[in-house]
Write a structure and sequence with these properties.
Layout: H1 8-31, E1 34-39, H2 42-55, E2 61-66, H3 71-77, E3 83-88, H4 89-99, E4 103-111, E5 115-117, E6 132-136, H5 139-151, E7 156-157, E8 170-172, E9 178-182, H6 184-187, E10 196-199, H7 201-206, E11 215-218, E12 227-233, H8 242-249, H9 252-261, E13 267-268
Parallel strand pairs: 1-2, 1-3, 6-9, 6-10
Antiparallel strand pairs: 3-12, 4-12, 4-13, 5-10, 5-11, 7-8
Helix pairs in contact: 2-8, 2-9
C-alpha cells in the first residue's frame, strides 16, 4: 500500500512513528553500559572512581580488564568494546597503521614517563661495557626506550627512524650494550636477570619494581609526545556518550587519584 492511498491522518501517524521509533531505539541504546577496556592493576582503582563520576551524569560503565597491550585495540576495532583507555598516541598510531584500525583519541588521561631501572647498578655511570639492557618489544614502546637511551648518551639512532626506531636503527653503540627485546609485561619481571631495563611505569608497578629507588633515569616531561588517551572507533567519535565519558575522567578527584594510586609517578594530562 502506498502513502497516496492512506487517509491523511494515517499518513501523519506513520511519518511521526518513524522518528519516535528511532528515538526509542536510541534511548534503549543509551541504557546499555559503555564497555571500556583498561589494563588490569592500578587503572582499575582509577576507573572505579570514573564509573562513579559517570553515574552522576546517567552513564553506566562496564570496565573490562586486559593483561597485554595488543588485545584492547583488537576488541575495540571489532566492537567488543565501546572505548579503551591504556595507550599513548604513538602506540595508537602504530596500531592503526599496522592493523588497519580506525581508532581515534577523544580525551587525554595522563603521561607516564618511561624509566631506566636496575637492581645491579646504582648509577648510570656504573653501567658496565657490554651491559644487557631490556626493552619492550612493541614498536612504539621499543622506540620510546631506545630514544631514552639515546637521550642519556648511550647510543645514537638514525634520525630517519623518528619516534619508532628499532635496534636496527642504532648507528653508534660505544658501550657495546646488548639490547634484549621482551614483551612489555615481561621486561619488568626480568629486571633481576638484566643489567638494566627500560620499563613502562604501569608494568614497573605490576612487577614490584621500586619506581623511586631502582630508577636510574626517566624521559623528560616537557613536550612529551606519549600522552595516554581515551580512544573510540572513528564512527563513534560523535556518539552522545563520548563527551560524558571523557568528562567523567577529567575531574579533580581523578587527578588526585592518579597522583595517589601511582605514587606520584604519572602526570595528569588534562586541565
Amino acid at each position: 500500500m502506498s502513502f497516496a492511498s492512506l487517509p491523511r491522518r494515517s499518513v501523519l501517524s506513520t511519518l511521526l512513528a518513524a522518528p519516535l521509533a528511532l528515538g526509542l531505539r536510541s534511548a534503549r541504546a543509551a541504557d546499555k553500559p559503555i564497555r571500556v577496556g583498561i589494563m588490569a592493576g592500578e587503572d582499575e582503582d582509577i576507573w572505579r572512581l570514573v564509573s562513579q563520576n559517570a553515574q552522576k551524569s546517567g552513564l553506566t560503565l562496564k570496565i573490562v580488564t586486559f593483561s597485554d597491550y595488543s588485545t584492547p585495540d583488537e576488541a575495540l576495532a571489532s566492537h567488543d568494546l565501546d572505548a579503551n583507555s591504556f595507550q599513548h598516541m604513538p602506540f595508537l598510531k602504530a596500531q592503526n597503521e599496522g592493523h588497519g584500525f580506525k581508532i581515534v583519541p577523544v580525551g587525554n588521561t595522563y603521561v607516564a614517563p618511561i624509566g631506566l631501572y636496575s637492581r645491579k647498578w646504582k648509577t648510570l655511570a656504573t653501567l658496565p661495557k657490554g651491559a644487557v639492557i631490556g626493552v619492550p618489544n612493541d614498536p612504539s614502546n621499543e622506540g620510546r626506550a631506545l630514544l631514552l637511551l639515546q637521550s642519556l648518551g648511550f647510543i645514537k639512532l638514525s634520525p630517519s627512524a623518528g619516534l619508532l626506531p628499532t635496534p636496527l636503527d642504532i648507528t653508534e653503540n660505544p658501550h657495546d650494550f646488548t639490547i634484549r627485546e621482551l614483551d612489555a609485561g615481561v621486561v619488568g619481571r626480568a629486571l633481576p636477570d638484566l643489567d638494566a631495563a627500560v620499563i613502562n611505569t604501569d608494568w614497573a608497578h605490576k612487577a614490584g619494581v621500586d619506581v623511586v629507588h631502582e630508577r636510574l633515569a626517566r624521559e623528560g616531561v616537557k613536550d612529551n609526545p606519549y600522552i595516554c588517551v581515551i580512544a573510540v572507533n572513528s564512527d563513534e567519535a560523535q556518539a552522545p556518550w563520548v563527551k560524558p565519558l571523557v568528562s567523567a575522567y577529567q575531574q579533580p578527584n581523578i587527578r588526585q587519584a592518579l597522583i595517589d594510586v601511582y605514587a606520584n609517578t604519572v602526570i595528569p594530562a588534562f586541565p
